[in-house]
Amino acid sequence: MAFTVRLLLLISSLFLVLESLFVQTNSGKVDVGASLSATAGNSTSWLSPSGDFAFGFRQLENSDLFLLSLWYAKIPDRTIVWYANNGDSPAAVAKGSLLNLTADSGLVLTSPRGVQLWKSESISGVVAFGVLNDTGNFVLEGDNSESLWETFNYPTHTILPGQDIEKGGKLRSQRSETNFSKGRFELRMQDDGNLVLVTINLPTEFVNAPYYASDTTGDSNSSTAGTKLEFNSSGYMYVLRENGEKLTIKEAETVSARSFYLRATLNFDGVFAQYSHPRDSSGNWSVVWSVPDNICNMEVASGLGVCGYNSICTLQGQRPTCACPKGYSLLDPNDPYGNCKPDFIQGCEEDKLSPTNDIYEVQMLNNTDWPLSDFMQLNPSTPESCNQSCFEDCLCAVAIYRVETCWKKKLPLSNGRVDSGLNSQAFIKVRKGNLTLPVPQPPNPDDKKRKNQTTLIRVGSALLGTSIFANVMLSAIVCMGFFFIYRKKHVRPNQNVLDSNLRSFSYEELKEATNGFNEELGKGAFGVVYKGILQIGSGVPVAVKKLDFVVQDSEKEFKTELKIIGQTHHKNLVRLVGYCDEGQERLLVYEFLSNGTLANFLFADTKPSWKQRIDIAYGVAKGLLYLHEECSTQIIHCDIKPQNILLDDYYNARIADFGLAKLLMMNQSQTQTAIRGTNGYVAPEWFRNLPITTKVDVYSFGVVLLEVICCRRSVDMENVSEERAILTDWVYDRYLEGVWDAIVDNEMEALHEKTKLERFVMVALWCIQEDPTLRPTMRKVVHMLEGVVEVHVPPCPSPYSSEG
Ligand SMILES: *[C@@H]1O[C@H](CO)[C@@H](O)[C@H](O)[C@H]1NC(C)=O
Ligand SMILES: *[C@@H]1O[C@H](CO)[C@@H](O)[C@H](O)[C@H]1NC(C)=O
Ligand SMILES: *[C@@H]1O[C@H](CO)[C@@H](O)[C@H](O)[C@H]1NC(C)=O
Ligand SMILES: *[C@@H]1O[C@H](CO)[C@@H](O)[C@H](O)[C@H]1NC(C)=O
Ligand SMILES: *[C@@H]1O[C@H](CO)[C@@H](O)[C@H](O)[C@H]1NC(C)=O
Ligand SMILES: *[C@@H]1O[C@H](CO)[C@@H](O)[C@H](O)[C@H]1NC(C)=O
Ligand SMILES: *[C@@H]1O[C@H](CO)[C@@H](O)[C@H](O)[C@H]1NC(C)=O
Ligand SMILES: *[C@@H]1O[C@H](CO)[C@@H](O)[C@H](O)[C@H]1NC(C)=O
Ligand SMILES: *[C@@H]1O[C@H](CO)[C@@H](O)[C@H](O)[C@H]1NC(C)=O
Ligand SMILES: *[C@@H]1O[C@H](CO)[C@@H](O)[C@H](O)[C@H]1NC(C)=O
Ligand SMILES: *[C@@H]1O[C@H](CO)[C@@H](O)[C@H](O)[C@H]1NC(C)=O
């Protein structure tokens, strides 16, 4: 008997133990003192009794950080319905951070070093325990089971059945699908009883006009005023009016909350939608309903639409996608819903430099509109006159034609959308060709203010990208501009021309642009050249030359020389874009040319065509002519060689490094010049006590010309016989013998143009005359190459050496 009693007692106490175990694991209850640690794995969360929901740390995608959140635990998606946040940003924490449940402050999140990162706010009273309810609500309760804090009262982007939003409450979107920072959209239950969807202008909280409203406004005496948004536990969502009536957000087929998980989420793209998911782990979330019907059609006067500025919204399903028009690109490539920027600078200043119809082409888009950016309306109009009117108007970025009306619009364009119901045509102006380089702007002498502009980097695609006509026009205008300035300078000596046509960069900027001087393009006589990208348009590649000489007390000279270089504008010169002059750091920023140096081109394994080489020769000659005679201050290059001649996208020759010789020679007497050109290309007067004139460049050009003709190095000790090692001597001998096929190595294309070949060789031989006075000027060289003037038989280039 006693045994039976003891057995019964034992069984009942066992039962008690079992029961307490059962309660501990299934009540969803969390005791004060419990903690969770942010580590990868499954031990980092608390479950609701049914196991439907989990509360704890979730590792963020592609990140070492963890987010304190609440999610559906049974479905593969593990969809997050709530997350801890500090207003603008999610409380993402490092591995090893701790969440403690304390009696005083409720939930407290601390970093591995013990710094408090987040806590459950506004707790008054002592917390007895926490509980994760099967509704998906995490509640902190006091001794009398009163709720002190619950996640339902601090919703993020999602509302669950059983949850309300009272007046003053709101849901907010996150930044993107994976970024939990605060986004631009909010669902607000306003104090006036109206439920609205709005965009806010970040970083302030300025609220734009709603793009959806329940229209339940009213003062508290009005029985139809809204009181709160309710998502009742059966899965119905409505605005509850004062009089108890329910205004359903959107009529839709009923989905049973018993067999489906339900949630309503304000998506990062501004669409507020209710979703359902089968309670068993099969299947996916599907949309029950969503508002607004077409979010692309929202019009937000003082803010962005769904998509960023200049972007175009297209509805796919019920969700928006954004795209930039052709000729525009994303400001932040990682944010497809963000702003688009034109890949060119559009505006009257830029347009002035070139005839309009050479810069732009028009792209036509059907049923596309940016309804809010017009500055002019024309009526009546035709599609053609609408297009033309915008085309000719430098303020106009796009024109929309619809029903005999033309709307001309300016940048930035906002609220862009595609909608087949629009029945409109859009004419967008886009620069022809690719984004090209910043062109220094010729200062306007009448406009003093512009002399102190810091944004002088301009994108003038005309100079590079379009027709020769545009090039000539632009060059002419630029040259005239500078000529004017140059003359004016004598009147107003303090005028700082440098500031007005070159951009001054900080060392930091260039360090950033070159990614810490990472990619070396080459080493020259003056320093190392690095590749960089300026953040203009979709990124402008540049070559940054770090000058490795520092001449003391030469600040003024440096600027003077830069000014001279900055004033040069010729299609056969590499353009200087800007400079950096900071302490000991002297850097020059040039346009980047994609096709490398003439040296690499000429002496590569495959021989470039005769035609290409001829064009390059003309280019170099014209570039030098410009330096010697056509720019405002004469520039002697002093180091013409194939390594200093670059090739652009179209294989035009572009002379580099001009103007630097003088910089380097500052403070140095002529005789001890450290720079003496490069062996093989150097005029003899460098070695004799003769004045250095433009003729040194003519000499070097002659050598380069022979290299271009023969595709051989001027000095080649390794690969050829001694007889052929010195190209100039060898060519002269072959010329005397009349052995043309040897000179061009039997190249048929060249031999077919024998007169041209002869002419070129003879010009080269004139250029390399030892006596500088015998060498022609570059102007004469150009004329001779072009066949405009006759080329006489050249004398022996080096009579002295052949004598000796
Ligand atoms: C977590 O648990 C789930 C289901 O129990 C399992 O599939 C998953 O592999 C676990 N993850 C880790 C990191 O242990
Ligand atoms: C949180 O809990 C852990 C483990 O229980 C404990 O070591 C730590 O001191 C607690 N931190 C705070 C701030 O209470
Ligand atoms: C959990 O939810 C149920 C049903 O909504 C409710 O009756 C219960 O009071 C909730 N528990 C807590 C602790 O909030
Ligand atoms: C999330 O977006 C914000 C705002 O655009 C940005 O500052 C932040 O770096 C982003 N976070 C991540 C992890 O990408
Ligand atoms: C509501 O009605 C009462 C009596 O009609 C009036 O005194 C009060 O000002 C009204 N309140 C508002 C907010 O209009
Ligand atoms: C939720 O609202 C619907 C529609 O008014 C109603 O039929 C249903 O009974 C409500 N459910 C609960 C639990 O109140
Ligand atoms: C759920 O969606 C994924 C991709 O979105 C799809 O591959 C899968 O087949 C869907 N599952 C069901 C049951 O529809
Ligand atoms: C645009 O509409 C015009 C006339 O309505 C039509 O001829 C043209 O093919 C359409 N263009 C595109 C790209 O759809
Ligand atoms: C718009 O006008 C420009 C300039 O006249 C013209 O070149 C272009 O073809 C026109 N485009 C359309 C679609 O009419
Ligand atoms: C523009 O640049 C891209 C990439 O740099 C190139 O693929 C494309 O051919 C260029 N287009 C023109 C018209 O030069
Ligand atoms: C340019 O303007 C800024 C302020 O707008 C001024 O600080 C600076 O001294 C000016 N520079 C010159 C060269 O006038």
TrEMBL record:
What protein am I looking at? Receptor-like serine/threonine-protein kinase
Q: Where are the transmembrane segments?
A: 462-486
**What does the record say about its membrane topology?**
Single-pass type I membrane protein
PROSITE patterns, alphabetically? BULB_LECTIN, PROTEIN_KINASE_ATP, PROTEIN_KINASE_DOM, PROTEIN_KINASE_ST
InterPro entries reported for this sequence: Bulb-type_lectin_dom, Bulb-type_lectin_dom_sf, G-type_lectin_kinases/EP1-like, Kinase-like_dom_sf, Prot_kinase_dom, Protein_kinase_ATP_BS, S_locus_glycoprot_dom, Ser/Thr_kinase_AS
| Similarity comment text for this entry | Belongs to the protein kinase superfamily. Ser/Thr protein kinase family.
| Signal peptide, first to last residue | 1-20
